Each structure stands twice: as C-alpha cells, then as structure tokens.
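In response to reviewer comment 3 from the previous cycle, which asked for concrete evidence that the modeling workflow produces usable outputs, we include below a single protein chain processed end to end. The sequence was submitted unchanged, and the resulting structure tokens are shown without manual editing.
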Amino acid sequence: YDKEAAQLRQKAKDMEEMAQRYLKYPALIPIEGGHAPKADAQQYCNNLVSLYTKSAEEADALSRLHRSMLK
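The workflow returned the following structure tokens.
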C-alpha cells in the first residue's frame, strides 16, 4: 500500500500540473466532436487531484493497519 500511495500522490501532482497548464494557456481543449472550455478541463483535473489525494490517504491508512497487524 505504501507504493500505491506514492503512485497516487504522483498522479495527483501530475494532475495539479496539468490544471496549472490549462490555467496558463487559455485555449479551448479539443475533444471528440468539438471543444471543451478550459474551465471544464481545469475542474476535471482538480477533481482528480482530490480523488487521488484521498485515495493515497486511504492507502496510507491501510498500510499502517497492516504494519500494526504484524506487531
């Protein structure tokens, strides 16, 4: 679970960087069948940051639980 938590934190960091790029560059984001406003893409990234962060915290808790069971 420690490795999973680290991977999830990296994904959250990557999404945060992507959200910052969308904020920096005001162009529309191309999607199938048209374009999405950048605000939608930023919100999507921010939602993923929250989900990845929460998942990392849960993986940390599971890791602690498993370690305590070994004692």
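Residues 38-69 form the longest helix (32 residues). We consider this sufficient to address the reviewer's concern, and the full set will be provided in the supplementary archive.
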